[in-house]
Amino acid sequence: MIYKTQAFSAQCNYAWEPDFLGGPHMAEETLFCIDINAGERMLQGRAGETLFQALKRQDFYLPSACGGQGKCGMCRLRIMNKVLPEPSAAEQKLLSEQQLALGWRLACQTKLCEDLKIELPKAYYEAGEYLVRITAKIALTKDIILLRCQAVEPRLVRLEAGCWMQWVIPVKSQDGEPCLRAFSLASDPKDQRNLEFIIKKTPCGIGTAWIFDQAQLGDTLTLRGPNGDFHLHNNQREAVFVAGGSGLSAIRSILLDMCSKGVQRKVRLFFGARHRRDLYMLDELAEIEKKLPQFKFIPALSDPLPEEQWLGESGLVTELLDKYYQDCSGMEAYLCGSPAMLQACVNLLQNKGMPPENIFFDKFVSSC
Predict the structure, then answer these.
(1) Neighbour count for residue 137 (Cβ, 10 Å)
(2) Residues 65-114: pLDDT tens digits?
(3) Is residue 4 part of a domain?
(4) 89 is in which domain, residue-wise?
């Protein structure tokens, strides 16, 4: 039941509720203020409900693959109160110590017991639901594909470089709910009709199993978004991009957006894989180097095979970062890959002086 408050205030004790005997009457209820992005939006929440529930009840879309059960970590947001709520066990598992210290919490784990000031990506204000048709499936490696889809007319998809879209896949999850999966946009966001995604097949994953084995050209499905806050910040700091596996998806979107907008900025991209056969789109990234004079692409193999006759960089991505950079205090980083790779890169960059607030990452979430 949604209560209609008599008048909104930061904290009030009365709300309207239906009187089944013939009219409204006053009922006691404690409400708290939810201040979004320093006053851009002001909502209210009921004592005891979670932020996820309060926002959903008032038509604020938050991404989630678990329906607010604290399993996926997608409904993360930043709390700006001076005194932060204690992190739950789920938050300690799904968020890094750095994120927790900066105020990041999961909306589904944060219960309302006081007024809250929060930060949300503005994309959540305008997230929508779109019907798209699959138009191409292109194999990039043995377990990574480029999937292209087209918005069903007349509605185009509002996109942002680096965002991700939530897919409603037409199979049921183990609990009988719709299968929801998140994939990062890989294409230039200026094309709001044709979208591309780089997707890696997840062992035992029912979502990627459908995409790889069952999805056919012409099939339609629903996408929700855009979601996320992984985007290139508007400044002139030297930037380092790091991608592993299908993590190139969001990075590619950002690079194509830079080409379209003519962004001139010193950037290096380290694209790591184990063997040569695990790398892809090398020719395209070399072409982007020609369009962006200050951009340098550096592919690297951690375990090159003798028969591959690899002449490029070898070693782990962290070894290359250590080789190429001494002082990172005036730089920023954009990382996209496995949690282990991200944490290793974060530790190294911070040891070289990069402020934690200048490190942005898009962490893979495994869904089986």
Answers:
(1) 16
(2) 666 778 888 888 999 999 999 999 999 999 989 999 999 999 999 999 99
(3) no
(4) 11-120
pTM, whole model, 2 decimals? 0.75
Question: Are 103 and 170 in a shared domain?
Answer: no
Query: What is the spatial order of strands in the sheet that 331-337 belongs to?
Result: 313-314, 295-301, 267-273, 238-244, 331-337, 359-363
Is residue 232 a part of any domain in this protein?
Answer: no
Strands (DSSP E) found in the chain = 11-17, 25-36, 41-46, 76-79, 104-106, 116-119, 128-139, 144-151, 164-172, 178-184, 194-200, 220-227, 238-244, 267-273, 295-301, 313-314, 331-337, 359-363
Strands (DSSP E) found in 18-125: 25-36, 41-46, 76-79, 104-106, 116-119
Domain for residue 368, yes or no?
no
Q: Give the range among 120-124, 243-247, 295-299 with minimum mean pLDDT.
A: 120-124
Task: For the chain, report the end-to-end CA distance as a whole number of angstroms.
Answer: 34
Q: Is position 6 within any domain?
A: no
Express each pLDDT in 22-33 by its tens digit: 444 444 679 999
Residue range 280-326, pLDDT digits in tens:
999 999 999 999 999 999 999 999 999 999 999 999 999 999 999 99
Looking up residue 301, the CATH number of its domain turns out to be 3.40.50.80
User: Which of 175, 204, 227 corresponds to the end of one domain?
Assistant: 227
What percent helix, strand, coil does the chain show, rounded to 5?
A: 25, 35, 40
Where residue 65 sits, what CATH number does that domain have?
Answer: 3.10.20.30
55 closest CA partner among 125, 159, 8, 1:
125
Q: How many domains does the chain have?
A: 3
Share of the chain above pLDDT 70, in %: 86
The more confident residue out of 306 and 368 is 306
The pLDDT, as a whole number, for residue 226 is 86
Same domain, 169 and 131: yes
- Same domain? For 103 and 180 the reply is no
Calpha distance 8→43 (Å, rounded) = 9
